[in-house]
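Hi P.,

Sorry for the delay on this. The queue was packed all week, but I finally got your sequence through. Input first:
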Amino acid sequence: MMRAALLWLMIALLFAVASKAENRNSGPDCSGGWPTTMTLVHLKNASLIDPKQVETAKTTTTRMASQQIGNDLWHQVYDVRLALKSGDVIEAIAVHDASIEECSMSGVEVFVVSKKLNTQGK
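Then the structure:
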């Protein structure tokens, strides 16, 4: 019985270590920070959105990809969905570089998603 408990403890520790290594390898998660704020700024500057119409509590940012390009530098892609008070959602893709210490290692490139094709049930 003691051996079984010890084995389960060792398995749990291995999963915990693997999980931490995976998070370290994928870089920082800047969701809700730099990519979200800069997407809003770019859309406002392009006269595509009025920041007063955004419902920040319903706005979501999801990291879609992260590739390490340096010792402490990742190139990242985020899906930013700005929820508006009207019920509409403006979706954009934000691309930037980030480090463990700072999400704003580069400016943010913003691509507005104007149309989804073949959404099948969504």
